[in-house]
Fold these 3 entries.
Entry 1:
Amino acid sequence: MSSRKSRLIKHLAVMLSLVAVVYGGVIGFSYYMGARFLAAMANTPQPPVNVSVARVQSVAWPQTLSAVASVKSVQGASLSPQSAGTVTGLFFDSGDIVRKNQLLLQLNDNVARAQLASAQARLTNARQARDRQKDLIKHRATNEASLEEAVANFREARAAVQQAQAVLTDLQLRAPFDGNLGIREVALGQYVAPGTTVASIEQWDPLRIIFSLPQREILRVQPGDKVHLVVDGLNDEGFDGKVSAIDASVNSRTRDIRIEVRIDNPDELLRAGMYGVARVILKQREQVVAIPQTAITFKSYGTYLYVIEQRQGTDVAVERSVQTGRHHQGFIAITHGVKAGERVVIAGQVKLHNGARVQIVPAPPALTRPQPDHDGN
C-alpha cells in the first residue's frame, strides 16, 4: 500500500514539474518578445509633427506713448435753478434727449407774474407822461427839467419791467445745449433752493479724453497726433481720436503734463467718467524684430518659442527663451532671443518637444495677416 502511494506521489511531482517548466517557458517567451517589441519601437523614428512657421521680420513700427485716460464731455453740466421755489411743472423724464432752450422745469411764478404786470402798468403810465412832456416842450408849455424827469421815470419803469421778466426767467430751467439728460432728481410739488441739482446733461459725441505724460515726452507729442483709446468691457476695436491740446504748464508736483484728445463716439458707447488706456501714435518710427503673437509660449519659468533648425537635412524644432516687447497689429516685438530671417513655429506647438522633427505646412492666413491698424499706416 505504501509503495503504491509513493509511486503516486512521484508521478504527481513529475507532472507538476512539467507544468512549471511549460508555464515558465511561456512567460519567459512573452517577456522576451515584449522586450524585442519595445526595443524595436524605441529604434523606430517618430513621425514628424505638422507645424506652421513664419519668418522673423525686421520692421519699422510707429513709436507710441501709453497712459491711463479719463473720458470727459466736451459739454456737460449739472442743471439747477437760479431761484428758490416750488416745482409746478416738469417737462422731461430721466434719459431724455433734449434740444437747446427746451423748457425742463417751472417753479411757482404767481408772485413774479403779478410783479411783472404791475411793472408793465407803471411803464405804460411813464411812457404816456414822457410823450406828453415831449408835446408840451414843442409848444413851450413846460420846461426841460420836467421833460428830463419824465424821461428818467420812463427809463426806470422800463428797467423794472426787464427786472420782473428776468425774475420770471429765473423761475424756469431750460436746456443750455443739445444733449442727453441723466436721472431726474426732483419731483412735482418739491421746494428747491438755488443750486439744487435737477438733472445732469451731457453731449456724448464727440467726447474728449484727458491723460498725463511725463515732462520728458513734451517735445514728442504734437497737436494732431493720432490717439487710440481702449476701454475695458467695450468694443475690441477701441476708439480713434487726435490730440487737440497740450496743457500750458507742467504740474509742479508730479512733473507731468496734461494732454487733451477729441475722440469720436458715433455709437455712443462711451460715457463721461469712464477710463481706459490711451496710446499716442507718434510720427517717429523705430526698427524692431517682430513675429506673430501666436509663436509665443508662456511658461512658469519664462517666455519661449520654437525655432526651426536644420539638422542632418531634417527640420527640427528647438525651444528657445526670448524676451518680448510691445504688441502691434497682431505681432510682438522680440528684444532678445531671435534674429531676422529665422523661422519660428506659429501653429502646432502643442505636440512639440525640444528636438522634435517637424514637417512644415501652410499657415492659416489669419495667423500671418496683421490685425486692423490703428495708426493709419
Note: The chain has three domains: 49-60+287-368, 66-74+205-286, 77-201.
Entry 2:
Amino acid sequence: MPPPSPAATPAPAEGSVTRPAVVRVRDLVRTFGEVRALDGVSLDVQPGIVYGLLGPNGAGKTTLIRVLATLLRPQSGSAEVAGVDVLADPTTARTRIGLAGQFAAVDEYLTGRENVAMVGRLYGLSPAEARRRTQDVLERIHLTDAADRQVGTYSGGMRRRLDLAASLVGRPQVMFLDEPTTGIDPRSRMDLWELIEDLVEAGTTVLLTTQYLEEADRLAQRIAVIDQGRIVSEGTADELKDALGGAVLEVAVGEDDRAAATEVLERVGGDPVTRDPARGRLRIPARDGSQTLLAAVRALDDAGVRTSDIALHRPSLDDVFLAVTGKPVEPTPAANAEVDVEDPDATASRAARRGRRPSRRSRG
C-alpha cells in the first residue's frame, strides 16, 4: 500500500485565515551515538488545537517533546514555543509551557493539594496566588474530594489527573502531553480525554504524543506521523485517511496461507500487500470497492486459500499508520512495564523518570 506523501509544513486551505504558529520547529536534528532520533523534523502547530504526534516506539516522539520542553538540546535546527526560542531563551520558554510526561511525576508523601501548590510556588507565584490557582485546577480536574489525601493512596488515573493539574497551575499557553493515558484504565482514559478537550476550549494548545489511534482520532485536529526521526505524513485525520485512496480490503488468514494469500491479493489489487502479523491480517487498497472484494473472494477460493474473515472498510488511522511506517501499532505497555534501553525515546523517558523531580520543576 503506497504511503501518503509527506508534508512537513502544510499549506493553508485556500481562502483560510491562519494565525502564527504557536509551536514552530525547523530541521531539528538530535542524535544518540549513531542513532538519529530526530532527523530534520519540521512542523507548525496552530494555536488552540490538539496536535497529535503518532509513531512507533523509538520514532522520536519523546525526544521532540524533550527538546521543546527545554530538557534536551538538539545538535542543529530551531524551535519556538509561544514566540520564544527554546534554545536561546529556555527560562522564558518554561514560563509558557506545561509538561506531563509518560509517568506521573508526583510526590507520594504530599497531599494532592500540596503537590500542585508546590509547583505553583516553583512557577514564582505568591503563596496566596498558588493556593488560589491550586483550588481552581483541582476543581477543573475533579479532584477536590481527594485533594487533602496523601498521593500514595491515589489510583493510577487519579495520579495522572494530578500530574495534569500540576502542569496547569502556571496557566501555560502550550501543554505537552507525552502519552498521558499510558497504563490507565479505560474510564480514567475517557476522563482525561474530556479534560484535554476542556483545556483546548479554554484556549490552551496541546501537543499530544500517543500510540492509541482512537485517542488521536478523537482529540487531534491535526496529526503528524513520525518514523525514524522524520515526519512521514501530516494532516487532519480525514486527510490522512483519504490519502490512502478509497476503501481498504482486509483479509484474515492463518500463517500457513499467508504467502499464498499475499500473492493472490497483489495480483487482484495491483498494489503491494501490507501486513499486520500480530493479528494475522493482510491489507490492500480496494480501488474498485465491492468489485475488488468480489474478485478477491473468487481468487482466494480458486487458490484454495482459507480465510477466517474478509472485509471492506474505509481507511482508518490504523491503516494510515501501517502504510506510512510499514509496521502495525505496537501494544502500549503498562505504566510499570520496562522499556527497551536501546530505544532513544525510551532511554530519554527512563532518564526523565530517574530525575523526575528536577525535570518536573522545569515547568517553571
Note: The chain has two domains: 23-240+337-361, 246-314.
Entry 3:
Amino acid sequence: MKLVKYGAVAALVASIGATTLIGLQASAADSGVTGSESDYLRSMDSKATLNFVPDNSVTKPIDPIDPTNPNPPTPLPPKPGTPGPLSIDYASDFNFGMQEISTETKSYYAKPQTYSDNSTVRPNFVQVTDKRGTNAGWTLSVKQAGQFSNPTTQNKTLDGAQLILGKGETVTNGSAATPTTYAVLLDPSGTTSKVMSADTNQGTGTWVNLFGGKNALQDVTVKDPSNQVTTEKRDFGVKLTVPGATQKDAVQYATTLTWELTNVPTNPTAP
C-alpha cells in the first residue's frame, strides 16, 4: 500500500511540475524573452559632438574662375588679407596702361589681374570671407581718395575723370546663399559706395566679386611702350572715362581706393 501511495504522490508531483513548466514557458513567450542567443537584443544611445569657433587666420585668394582649384596661383602684387573671421582677402589694383593724350572724351579699360605663374590672367576682383559662424551678414564698400592726380606736374588732376566698376558676378568655393553685387560710379570726393552686401543668412564662406563677370576680358588694340600696335586683354568691367577738355600732361596719374568691410548686413533689395 505504501508503494502505491508513493507512486501516486510521484505522479502528482510530476503532473504539477509539468503544468508549472508549461506555465513558465507560456509566460516567457508572452514577455518576448527567449533563451536563444540569436534572438537576444538590448539597445542604448550615445552622442557624438563637435564644436566650431570663428577662424581668425588670413584667407588666401581663391581662383576667381576655378574656385575649387586646390593650388591657385598667387595674384600680383601679393597682398596680405585683413585678419579676423570677417575679412577682405584681396582687392585688385587697376592699371589702365599707357594711353595717348587726346582732346576727345575717351574711355579706357583696366588690364586684367595677373598672377605669379606669369601666364594666368583673370578679371579684376575683390574677395571677402566670412568665417564667424553667425550668419549675421555684412557689407563691402569702396571710396576713392581724390581725383586721379600727379602733384609733380603742371596739370595736377584729371578733372572730370570717372571710374566705373561694373555690376559684379559672384564666385564661391562653398554653397551658401549668394550676396548681392552693385555697379559702382566712384566719387572722387570720397563718398562711400556699396560694392557687395550679404543679408542675414547670406554670404558665409569665401566670395569673389568679379567686376563685369567672368567674361569681362576682351581683346583690344593698343600701343606698347615702343609705340608698336599690339593686341592685349582688357577688363571691360573696370572703366575710366576722361573728358576731352581735361588738360593732360605726359605723366602718370593715380588715385587710391579704400575698401571697407563692416559686419552690418544690408537688405539686398535696397538700391
Note: Residues 1-16, 18-22 have pLDDT under 50 and may be disordered.
